[in-house]
């Protein structure tokens, strides 16, 4: 019985619950209240090389609370999508910046390796203040993303690649051989139906995410954000539930198996 109890606890703690979609399915979602975190980064940047691997862990642990995008500049991953996104950001903040620099819901929040505490504070502030987004539905299938024309502002759809291989080595890449959450293509749809595409939005990498952002045309805090991914991501809520269940079973088992204290009668003492 004790062996069975231990096995059950191990299974509960080790079994991942994922939010993943297959290539041959259509996944539909509504615009949400996720917080948008955009990092200006570069492969050659030593601080970025330290912090970037941690960001994928942060993104997975936060689940739907945040959507993190890597905007690469002046390296092999720089592309027309990342340059266009930086140009959009500069409409409201054209100050100089280094790498890594973090923008949380469009506000330049912090720079450098020690920046995450400030980023986290901004995330919590935004979660407490953001109102419910407009009703807007999206879908993703093997051909790419499908979305409506917004009633106001613009809809920005970002295609991210996970575990993107880095070709540079040595001093040009002081970090790992892959980078995560790299912006590789982007579409911007305005309320009048005008659509501008940067890169290829239909050629999906092996591991991808689409981030849908309803936002002002001239820069500013997003109205709503939603990410759809085909990656297998552990569900923090379910993992926590597993730990709680395991703790409850362990406590119950301990109560059952702890031997009761014998009360000796005087003759036996």
Can you put this structure into words, describing what you see?
This protein has 269 residues and is of the alpha+beta class. It folds into 2 domains: 1-17 and 235-258; 18-233, Glutaredoxin. Helices cover 28% and strands 28% of the residues. The protein is built from 5 helices and 14 strands. The chain has a 5-stranded antiparallel sheet with strand order 12-11-8-13-14. Strands 3-2-4-5 form a 4-stranded mixed sheet, with helices on both faces. Strand 2, helix 2 (46-62) and strand 3 (66-72) form a beta-alpha-beta unit. Helix 1 (2-14) packs antiparallel against helix 5. The radius of gyration is 24 Å and the shape is globular. It starts with a helix and ends in a 12-residue tail after the last helix.
Strand content: 25-35%
Structural class given helices, strands, pairing? Answer: alpha+beta
The pLDDT mean sits at 81
Work out the helicity level: 25-40%
Strand line-up in the sheet with most strands: 12-11-8-13-14
The biggest beta sheet is recorded as: 5 strands, antiparallel
Query: What is the domain tally?
Result: 2
Large-scale geometry: globular
CATH architecture type of the largest domain: 3-Layer(aba) Sandwich
CATH fold name of the largest domain: Glutaredoxin
For the secondary structure, the number of strands is 14
Name the helix and strand elements from N-terminus to C-terminus, one letter apiece.
HEEHEHEEHEEEEEEEEEH
Number of distinct helices = 5
Question: What ranges have pLDDT less than 50 throughout 5 or more consecutive residues?
Answer: 1-23, 236-269
- CATH class category name of the largest domain: Alpha Beta
Supply the CATH superfamily name of the largest domain: Glutaredoxin
Computed over alpha carbons, the radius of gyration is 24 Å
